[in-house]
Structures are given as structure tokens and as C-alpha cells.
Fold:
Amino acid sequence: MAMNIFMCSVQLSREQARAILDGARAQARKVGLPPLTLVVLDGGGHLVAAEREDGCAPLRFPVAQGKAHAALGMGIASGIIGERNIERPAFLASVAAASKGHFVPVAGGVPILDGEQCVIGAVGVSGASSEEDQQVAIAGIKAADLHWGLAPGGEEH
Structure:
């Protein structure tokens, strides 16, 4: 017998995550990038949707997920984390260890923001250059009519 339960609050729906993946993939195909793996996480770090294009290497999934986790966990784009901490390899290694390897501080992970600039999820992309991965992640977020930002006070929409 099914029981009544309280529903959980969802700030990033499956439909929005699919729109992100579809928009990101469309952008990647438009500019002729190699096969990509794309990951969308909710604000709690849970996988909402993921896609591995045909021909994409197996390690691309944990890299894409690690980029998304880095952006989500630190509240800024994964590439910004790496740039800001280039002189602090011990810090980066410590965070990677604390996250059990779910932390890739390389461009390609972008926070998804709500209307008040609060992080509600993140996108991670792996398979092209880091900068191309980041641009594809942004294109996906835009395609879903959601907000994104690399870092507060920086480029964001």
C-alpha cells in the first residue's frame, strides 16, 4: 500500500536539466566540437541528468561531474577556482581529497543561478578544450532560460 509522503523541494527540474543538455549539445555540434560528456547537478550535488555522446572516452563522465561539483561546492566556475589557486596546489589537492575526487578545478563547470544570484545547480562538460567546455555549459544554461555566472562581479547572465 502506497503511503502519503511530503514532497521535496525541486529548484532544478528534470525538464530544465534536459533543456540544458540539449542546448549544450546543439552548440557543440554547431561549432564542430569532439564528442562531449555533459552533467547537470542540482543544488545538493545530486545528478539530475547526464549524457555521453557517441565516441566519448569513459573518463569524461567523472571529469565532467568533477567540474560541476567544483563549481557547485565553491560557488564559482571551476576554471576560476583553478586560476585563483594556481599558486596554492596544496589547497587544491586538499579540496580534491576532501571531496573524494569529485573536484576538478579546470574550466568547464559553471554554476546555475536563481534570480537572486544563489546557486541552484551546476553544469559540467568534458571532451573539448577547457574553454570550449565552459562555453558549451553556458550555452546550455542559456538555452534553458536560466541564469549563470562565473564569479560574483564577473560575467554573468
Notes: The chain has a mean pLDDT of 94. The helical segments are 14-30, 60-74, 78-84, 89-98, 130-143. The chain is about 40% helix and 15% strand. The CA atoms of residues 68 and 137 lie 10 Å apart.
